[in-house]
Amino acid sequence: MPAKTVNERVAAINEKIEKKQAEIAALEAQRQRLLHPITMRTVMSKAKAVGMSAEEIAERLGLDF
């Protein structure tokens, strides 16, 4: 069995790096969600801050009361 060429070894290392970068990105997204959770209260307060009424919010959500 012949030894791998330098290019093959570099390609294997690049694949490992890409895999680890994807794992890091997923972990960073998890951290962001933990540090800045989106709750219904924050959504409603932001909607009210931009001037939306409860009726407008319900309409955008497709709710019929």
- Overall domain count: 1
Distance between the ends = 73 Å
The shape, in one word, is rod-shaped
Round the Cα radius of gyration to an integer and report it. 24 Å
What share of the residues lie within helices? over 70%
SSE sequence, one letter per element: HHH
Structural class: mainly alpha
Assembly type of the shown chains?
single chain
Low-confidence stretches: none
- Number of helical runs? 3
User: What is the total tally of β strands?
Assistant: 0
Which percent band covers the strand fraction? under 5%
- Biggest beta-sheet profile: none
Q: What is the mean predicted local confidence, pLDDT?
A: 92
Describe the protein in words.
The protein has 65 residues and is an all-alpha fold. It has one domain. The protein has helices at 6-35, 40-49, 54-61.
Note the main attributes of this structure:
single chain, 65 residues, 0% strand
Structure described in brief:
The protein has 65 residues and is an all-alpha fold. It has one domain (6-61). The protein is 74% helix and 0% strand.
